Amino acid sequence: LVLIKNSFSFLHDQALDSNLSNLIKRNNELESLMGKLIQTCQHVEVNASRQEGKLLEECDMLIEIIQQRKQIIGSKIKEGKVSRRLRKLAQQITNCKQCIERSTALISQADQTLKETDHARFLQTTFKLQFEKKNMKIYIREELCTASYDTITAHWTSDDEFTVVSYELQYAIFTGHANIASLCNSLESWMIVPNIKQNHYTVHGLQSGTKYIFVVKAINQAGSRTSEPGTLKTNSQPFKLDPKTAHKKLKVSHDNLTVERDETTSKKGHSQERFSSQSSYGVVGNVYIDSGRHYWEALIGGSTWYAVGIAYKSAPKHEWIGKNSASWVLCRCNNSWVVRHNSKELAIEPSPHLRRIGVLLDYDAGYVSFYDAVGSQHLHTFNVSFIQPVCPVFNVWNKCLTILTGLPIPDHLEAVEPHS
Ligand SMILES: *[C@@H]1O[C@H](CO)[C@@H](O)[C@H](O)[C@H]1NC(C)=O
Ligand SMILES: *[C@@H]1O[C@H](CO)[C@@H](O)[C@H](O)[C@H]1NC(C)=O
Ligand SMILES: *[C@@H]1O[C@H](CO)[C@@H](O)[C@H](O)[C@H]1NC(C)=O
Ligand SMILES: *[C@@H]1O[C@H](CO)[C@@H](O)[C@H](O)[C@H]1NC(C)=O
Ligand SMILES: *[C@@H]1O[C@H](CO)[C@@H](O)[C@H](O)[C@H]1NC(C)=O
């Protein structure tokens, strides 16, 4: 028994021994693996910092290249400008020389005529003098003109700037119905800015979203010359969303241009201004419209439940939009589109991919129209005799929409009769 026990104990020791050496072997393997890993880590770090260095170096090189290019382009532009100016000056000098030659000839002719007592010949000479100077032409440079919602800067050029003493700018509202000729004859509707010394002028205090007709008159010693009329239009008055009016379940972006359905419960306070209905999730634009023409667009950001339109400033904020007599809207409810006012709904059939809704409001003429701004398809017009100031209004029940404002009224909307 002892022998058996001893031999077992021996076997046992041997097993432990081999287990132990196994463990030591594994341990050594692990340690060397760890060493390798640490080394790799260091390599990676070194490589990363080397790459970073290289990247920075390349960035510096790029910046240097860009700066060199900038210098080259800058000097090229300067050269271009200078040579263009030189060419213009040379042209003007030639013109001037011709003028002087002509004047000298005319003066000596006049001198001679004065000496003679022939009255008829004197008159003829004077007429010739005026006639020659009248050959000058003047153009409104529409590509240089700029506009905001209440100003237009008009630029013009004339063939013969040398002899011009001053310009006179005339402008009037251009409705498109009156023809230009009859408008030009009805002097009382024109505004006149006399005595302009440079070849551009900024007119302030214009109506937003309105087309104007401009004419420039160049005046020199010999008389005056009028340009062809040019038409220019002001943009619509720009506006943003007023986050103070947004329903609790809506989130307005930092730039106040996008409104999104907000599922998180929030701490927005209650106020009179805020939309507060259980179901009408609205926000209004921060603009007060009581005259003029206005155009804006709503870009639909994946929303399938929304309403876009206008409401009286005083319209109750707790009611559904379009369900009272103080609001006019176009709505999408999942797969159906309607226009709604005073709870009366009318189905419309826009493209199912309607993505940009154009709203044209003419307060004075009394209508608000909705368009597919991409396909420029007319969707609906409400005739309204407005009796109170109105503001744009937007509702979203899912996803978001973004507003686009300060746009000029698109040409194709000017061309069509709003009621047809
Ligand atoms: C330890 O030794 C016993 C007997 O030789 C063997 O069965 C077992 O698998 C060993 N264990 C390890 C971890 O090597
Ligand atoms: C470090 O970069 C060299 C070449 O630049 C490459 O051969 C080596 O594999 C890289 N090492 C690691 C750990 O990325
Ligand atoms: C957004 O509207 C709020 C409240 O009227 C205003 O304080 C903020 O300046 C506006 N932000 C921008 C970018 O217009
Ligand atoms: C919305 O339209 C989709 C697709 O036609 C339909 O599956 C879904 O049931 C509609 N949802 C509601 C609330 O009517
Ligand atoms: C709007 O008024 C015009 C007449 O000025 C009329 O022809 C048109 O049918 C009206 N539109 C609607 C929708 O009532």
TrEMBL record:
Higher taxonomy: Eukaryota, Metazoa, Chordata, Craniata, Vertebrata
Name of the protein described by the UniProt record: E3 ubiquitin-protein ligase Midline-1
Function (record text): Has E3 ubiquitin ligase activity towards IGBP1, promoting its monoubiquitination, which results in deprotection of the catalytic subunit of protein phosphatase PP2A, and its subsequent degradation by polyubiquitination.
Gene3D superfamilies hit by this protein: 2.60.120.920, Immunoglobulins
Region (Disordered): 253-274
Keywords: Coiled coil, Cytoplasm, Cytoskeleton, Metal-binding, Microtubule, Transferase, Ubl conjugation pathway
Limits of the Fibronectin type-III domain: 137-237
A single MF term (Gene Ontology): metal ion binding
Any GO BP annotation: regulation of microtubule cytoskeleton organization
CDD domains, A to Z: FN3
B30.2/SPRY domain boundaries: 219-412
Annotated family: Belongs to the TRIM/RBCC family.
